[in-house]
Structure formats: structure tokens, C-alpha cells
Specification:
The chain is mainly α and 93 residues long. It has helices spanning 2-5, 9-17, 32-37, 51-56, 61-70, 85-88. Helix 2 runs parallel beside helix 5 (61-70).
């Protein structure tokens, strides 16, 4: 769900309510939770800000992550390179 990487809480909510599979990965195995945790929202094009820093500044990504977790998004899923959502949410590169 690309919407999760953009902090689009309402869009993600509608998709999940319509039956979108929260743990379905893209062709690289990246799930919606991974997209949200490692997104480029807030102008973070160099991935220098982690999810926690973004959340402290009011970024909507934390709300999207909470929603995905409420729908039982797996924090243990790994993409094709073995990276988890927690790794995507790193504080610094």
C-alpha cells in the first residue's frame, strides 16, 4: 500500500476496511508497515530521520503505523533483503 508511505491515514483505513491484506508485500516483499516506517514523508529524501523522530514532530506516519498494527501488521515480516519494518524505522542512516 503506497498510501502508507505518504501518511495517508484515511486512504489506508478505507483500504484495510475493504479487505486489503495488511501483510501482503510488493514485488520486493516490502509491506505497508515497512513503507510507512521508512517513508520519505516530511522531505526526508536522504532517509536521515527515523520514524520516532518524525512522530515527535507530528508526522502522520505514526498514525498510519498504529492503524496497520491494529489490523495485525506483522513486525517480523522481512523483505527480499531480510530487512524488517523496525530496520526501516531506524533513527539514522
Amino acid at each position: 500500500m503506497w498510501s502508507s508511505s505518504q501518511g495517508r491515514h484515511e486512504a489506508v483505513s478505507v483500504l484495510l476496511a475493504a479487505g486489503a491484506k495488511v501483510n501482503k508485500g510488493d514485488y520486493d516483499g516490502v509491506t505497508a508497515l515497512m513503507w510507512a516506517a521508512g517513508s520519505e514523508t516530511s522531505g526526508d529524501t536522504e532517509h536521515k530521520k527515523g520514524l520516532l523522530e518524525k512522530a515527535n514532530k507530528g508526522d502522520t506516519l505514526a498514525d498510519v503505523v498504529s492503524l496497520l498494527l491494529a489490523y495485525r501488521a506483522s513486525i517480523d515480516s522481512r523483505d527480499k533483503d531480510g530487512i524488517t519494518a523496525i530496520m526501516y524505522a531506524r533513527l539514522i542512516t
